[in-house]
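Quick one, probably user error.
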């Protein structure tokens, strides 16, 4: 499960990808390509999507800008946690 920043709106989820600076927490274990839930801090379900990273990588990148990702991961990063084409906003 991914928990976005409270300022990260539903309209933001539906019109763009989910970036790490918008994620405030990662819960559970998942692999790249797994379906994950996107919930607010109160546990309300906002969306479902396919993860571009596994849970451990998401933890390491949480709150970081994309310019930092290659140095943190040691490889060229993907664009987003969940690409908008693989995101269903509820």
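Nope, works fine. Designed sequence:
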């Amino acid at each position: 499960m991914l928990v976005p920043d409270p300022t990260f709106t539903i309209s933001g989820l539906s019109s763009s990808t989910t970036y790490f600076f918008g994620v405030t927490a990662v819960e559970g274990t998942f692999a790249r390509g797994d379906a994950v839930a996107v919930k607010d801090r109160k546990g309300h379900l906002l969306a479902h999507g396919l993860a571009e990273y596994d849970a451990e990588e998401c933890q390491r990148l949480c709150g970081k800008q994309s310019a930092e990702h290659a140095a943190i991961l040691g490889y060229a990063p993907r664009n987003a946690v969940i690409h908008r084409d693989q995101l269903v906003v509820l």
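Residues 66-73 form the longest helix (8 residues).
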